[in-house]
Amino acid sequence: MPDLFTIGYEQSTQQAVIAALRDAGVAHLLDVRAVPQSRKPGFSKTLLGASLEAAGIRYTHLRGLGTPKAGRDAVRHGHPEIMHRIFRDHMAEPAAQADLARAAAFAGEAPVCLLCFERDPAHCHRTLVAEFLGRTPVHLVP
C-alpha cells in the first residue's frame, strides 16, 4: 500500500515544503484545511496548487476534512484536546465522509501527504484524518 505522510507549513517556506514532499516521494498533496488561504506567502490554494504542479506533485483540496472554526479556535487557545473532540464530531457529517472516501481512494493510488498549518502533528487534525483512514502516517518536517 502506498505511504501516507503529513506535513505542516508553520515556520516554513513553500520551497522547503515542496522539497520535503519530493524527498519523501509524495505524488499527491491533499490539502485538509477548511480555509485554503494563508497569510504565509505561497500557501494559498491557487499559488500552492500551481507550484506543486510545476514540481510534479498533484494537488487536491478536501474542504470536508478541514477543522471547523470552533476547533481551530480551540487550538489557537492552547486546547488541542477540545479540537480533537470537535473534529471527531465533524467527521460524522456527509461532506466529511465524502472527502474521507476521496482521500482513501487517492491514498490507494500513490503516496499522498495531508497538509495543514500546524508544525506539531499532535496539535493538528491531520493526525486524526490519518486515523480515520486507518493509517499510521509519517510526519514530515520541512
Protein model, in words:
The mean pLDDT is 95. Helix 2 (45-54) links the parallel strand 2 and strand 3 (58-61). The protein has a single domain (4-140), classed as Protein-Tyrosine Phosphatase, Chain A (Alpha-Beta Complex), CATH 3.90.190. A five-stranded parallel beta sheet has the order 3-2-4-1-5, sandwiched between helices. The chain contains six helices and five strands; from the N terminus they run βαβαβαααβαβ. The protein is of the alpha/beta class and 142 residues long. The protein is 43% helix and 15% strand. Helix 3 runs antiparallel to helix 4.
User: How many whole angstroms does the radius of gyration measure?
Assistant: 14 Å
In the CATH scheme, the class would be Alpha Beta
Stretches with pLDDT under 50, minimum 5 residues: none
CATH topology: Protein-Tyrosine Phosphatase, Chain A
Distance between the termini: 24 Å
| Mean residue pLDDT | 95
Structurally, how many domains make up the residues?
1
Structural class: alpha/beta
Percent helix range = 40-55%
CATH architecture: Alpha-Beta Complex
How can the largest sheet be summarized?
5 strands, parallel
Shape: globular
Number of strands: 5
Topology:
Layout: E1 4-8, H1 14-24, E2 28-31, H2 45-54, E3 58-61, H3 69-76, H4 80-90, H5 94-107, E4 112-116, H6 126-132, E5 138-140
Parallel strand pairs: 1-4, 1-5, 2-3, 2-4
Helix pairs in contact: 3-4
